[in-house]
From TrEMBL:
This is EmrB/QacA subfamily drug resistance transporter. GO terms for molecular function: transmembrane transporter activity. It comes from Actinophytocola algeriensis. The lineage of its organism: Bacteria, Bacillati, Actinomycetota, Actinomycetes, Pseudonocardiales. The chain crosses the membrane at residues 43-61, 73-92, 98-120, 132-153, 159-180, 192-211, 223-244, 265-291, 303-324, 331-352, 364-384, 404-425, 497-516. It is found in: Cell membrane. Residues 7-519 form the Major facilitator superfamily (MFS) profile domain. It comes from the Bacteria. Keywords: Cell membrane, Membrane, Transmembrane, Transmembrane helix, Transport. It is a multi-pass membrane protein. Gene3D superfamilies: MFS general substrate transporter like domains, Multidrug resistance protein D. GO terms for cellular component: plasma membrane.
Length: 539
């Protein structure tokens, strides 16, 4: 039999690409806004639709691996992901890019559960610590490396290459997967729950659409008699119906088997995973826009600023894999959450329109340290008691929790950012208007308020000014408007970063319920674990 580590590196290559694309778009947002003639809401959807398309099908794609074999499903997803990456790089409008990113997210959804499912089959419980640590390190490092690599590509070859670079990676990963991964086949036929799938997909779609687009539609009518409030209520009700069906249905196998939640550690690990997904996704949007729009950094400069965060995350992830057996997964996870919350708080405290960007480096490095200490022990805790016949379902649930957190983090932080701009920019405008002649003040404030209360980009390079000004006065007004925007956007960014901090504190609460033994040999005493259960089926 091939070495399990050969297959492991193939899985890591696939997972790295999936996680990289969850954040690589963020650094290119300002450039894409201009090149695609799009507004901020549309470009936020470029990122959120990938997260949404990657999230909604995870429960069913995890079960597809149990039904058709994890290798077959992973290869299908890899092909779809690579094709969608080429389409994304060739897109000429925001709408086309959103469609391509949807397909890319669906491909990622096919692959993601299979990567973790393979690990639990390739390695017995007593040898699973190192590969799980590697898998967790890949998740953290790829997420943080996204903005760094994205900045390099945007600066030198164009934003299109943040997608086109996936083509060679995807082709190489496909060849390795076909050769190195064993083609395990299920020993029993599974039935699926189409109604449950529809309820889950429709509920998540409605909820995220309502949260993210509330400001865009002024919390009012979307189409016909339907308002944002109606859509949000419908989303909640559909998700409640989905949960009820999963708990009560007996005629078909539910997407989320009740058996996976017998171990309370798995439940707490999923709650913590959702909190981390929310915080990581939610912190990038305001940070990148603040660095590039307010501090005037290029895509490359802002990505280089994030490099210390990626490096400390990689180091902490490797260290946590070696330490959790000694000091406990729970302690590392709580410490990681707390460190990340403190780091984001430091960034909020430091942020100002005229700050030297280099002063942010210690806070960013501290954030990477916190992230690195969470992923490996958290994944270990979630998979410690996973039986072979539920690996696909449990992997789907675990990855769904992170992705749901990420989707809601992107949407909610984007909402708070838009609301913050709508309030903070007009407030700054009223203060700056005192510097203008009286006859221009009202129009100045009104035009800035109108720009700030839409989802379109408030472009500080071409700010709205009264139309009848002579050139000298207009130049002064433009400089004033730039100051207004920088002050107002900084306030909005700081406010939006408070949301991830709050969710990280909830993650600490969830992590207190994670209790697993600190010796690898003791893992077999966990529910469902035995040496016979964890031996992989024949290839």
């Amino acid at each position: 039999m091939r070495s399990p580590w050969t297959a492991m590196w193939a899985l890591c290559a696939c997972f790295f690409m999936i996680m990289l694309d969850s954040t690589i778009v963020t650094v290119a947002i300002p450039t894409m806004l201009t090149d695609l003639n799009a507004n901020l809401n549309e470009i936020v959807w470029v990122n959120s639709v990938y997260l949404l398309a990657n999230t909604v099908p995870l429960l069913i794609t995890g079960r597809l691996g149990d039904r058709f074999g994890p290798k077959n499903v992973l290869v299908a997803g890899l092909v779809a992901f690579t094709v969608a990456s080429a389409w994304s790089g060739l897109a000429t409008s925001a709408g086309e890019l959103i469609a391509a990113r949807t397909l890319q997210g669906l491909g990622a959804a096919l692959m993601t559960p299979q990567t973790l499912s393979f690990i639990t089959r390739l390695f017995p419980p007593e040898k699973r610590g190192v590969p799980i640590s590697v898998w967790g390190a890949v998740a953290g490092v790829a997420t943080l490396a996204g903005p760094v690599l994205g900045g390099l590509l945007v600066e030198h070859v164009g934003w299109q290459w943040i997608f086109l670079i996936n083509i060679p990676i995807g082709v190489i990963s496909l060849l390795i997967a076909l050769v190195a991964l064993p083609n395990w086949q299920p020993r029993r036929e599974l039935r699926f729950d189409p109604l449950g799938t529809v309820l889950c997909a429709a509920g998540l779609l409605a909820l995220v659409f309502g949260v993210q687009n509330g400001q865009h539609y002024h919390w009012s009518t979307v189409a016909g008699p339907f308002t944002i409030v109606h859509i949000l209520i419908a989303g909640v009700l559909l998700l409640v119906a989905f949960v009820w069906r999963q708990v009560t249905v007996r005629t078909r196998e539910p997407l989320v088997p009740n058996e996976v939640f017998r171990d309370p550690v798995f439940t707490y690990a999923n709650l913590a995973h959702a909190a981390m997904g929310f915080a990581m996704t939610g912190m990038f949007l305001p940070l990148v826009l603040y660095l590039q729009t307010v501090l005037g950094m290029s895509a490359l400069e802002s990505s280089a600023l994030a490099l210390p965060m990626a490096l400390t995350a990689a180091g902490a992830a490797g260290l946590s894999g070696a330490l959790w057996h000694r000091i406990g997964a729970r302690n590392l996870i709580i410490g990681g959450f707390g460190t990340l919350a403190v780091a984001v708080g430091v960034l909020v405290y430091q942020a100002a329109p005229d700050i030297d960007p280099a002063t942010l480096i210690p806070g960013l490095a501290l954030a990477g340290l916190g992230i690195g200490f969470v992923f490996s022990p958290l994944t270990t805790a979630a998979t410690a008691g996973m039986p072979p016949h539920l690996t696909g379902a449990a992997s789907g649930v675990f990855n769904t929790s992170r992705q749901v957190g990420g989707v809601l983090g992107s949407a909610a932080t984007g909402l708070v950012l838009q609301l913050g701009v709508a309030f903070a920019v007009p407030d700054a405008a009223r203060q700056y208007a005192e510097r203008l002649p009286v006859r221009y003040r009202e129009e100045f404030v009104d035009r800035i308020t109108e720009a700030a209360n839409t989802a379109s980009q408030f472009d500080s390079s071409h700010p709205p000014v009264p139309s009848d000004l002579d050139p000298d006065v207009a130049d002064i007004v433009r400089r004033i408007v730039t100051g207004v925007f920088h002050d107002g956007f900084t306030v909005a960014a700081k406010a939006s970063l408070m949301l991830p901090i709050a969710v990280l504190l909830l993650g600490i609460v969830a992590a207190t319920g994670i209790r697993i033994k600190t010796k690898a040999d003791d893992l077999e005493s966990q529910p469902w674990s035995s040496s016979s259960h964890h031996s992989p089926p024949p290839a």
